[in-house]
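Q: Hi! Curious about what ATP-dependent dethiobiotin synthetase BioD looks like structurally. Here's the sequence.
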Amino acid sequence: MNLAERLENPPAQPLRSLFVTGTDTGVGKTAVTAALAQRCAREMGRVAALKPVVSGVEADGRWSDVEILRAVSTPPRSFDETCLYALDPPIAPHWAAVQVGLTLDRQKIRQFIKQQSAGMHAVLVEGAGGFLVPLGDNWSFADLALDLQFPVLLVVGLRLGAINHALLSAEAILARALPMAGWVANHLQPDLAPGTLETLQRLMPSPCLGEIPFQAEASSVCRSQYLSLPACWD
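A: Let's find out. The predicted structure is below.
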C-alpha cells in the first residue's frame, strides 16, 4: 500500500503512540518529534504531532514549535488541532498560565489528545521543558504521561551535564512504571562534551533510537534518516 492509499484508509492496527520529553528545555524535542513524524508518515501514513501546551510567543506573534509540528503532521493540521493552550509569557507553562489567569485543565488536555488521535496511524505528543515540569499545583507532564500511558521517548541534548540529566530523567520515567521507548542523542553544538554519548550508550536503561549530528539548517526530512522507530511498536 502506497502513502496515498494509507492516507485514504483508516488504521488497520492499534494506534502507535509516543510521549516525547527532554532532559531540559532547548534540547531539540520539537526537532526530534518533527523528524519522527516524517519517518512515521513514510512508513505508516496518518500521523498527528501534537504539542498540547506551549509557552513563549515570539516577536512575530507565532509559536514556532507548534507551527513546525502542525506542518509535519500528515495530513497537515491547523494550529488549534495541534495545540490546546498557547501561552504568551516565555516561562514555565504552569506559571505562564497563572500570569494570564488560566488553569491548565487536565481533563481537557487528555480529551484534546484523544480527539486529535482519532483516525491516526501514529500520534506523537511533545511536552514542554523536562519530564517533571509542572502543569499546575498538583500535577506535571509526568502525570500527563501517566494519564496517557504512552511509551516515553527522551531527547538528550548532548552538552556538559547531560549524563546526570539523562539518567535522572530515565529514573523518573521508570519509577512511574512507564514504558521507556528509548532516547535520542541530539548534538547541540559541534564537538561538545566528549565522552558523553559513549557513557550514555553504556548506562541508559533503554535503547538509543538515533544520534542527530549538529546541523543548524537541517530539515525534518533530513533528520529523520538518523532515527529508528521504537521496537515497542513492532
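A: A fun detail: The mean pLDDT is 92.
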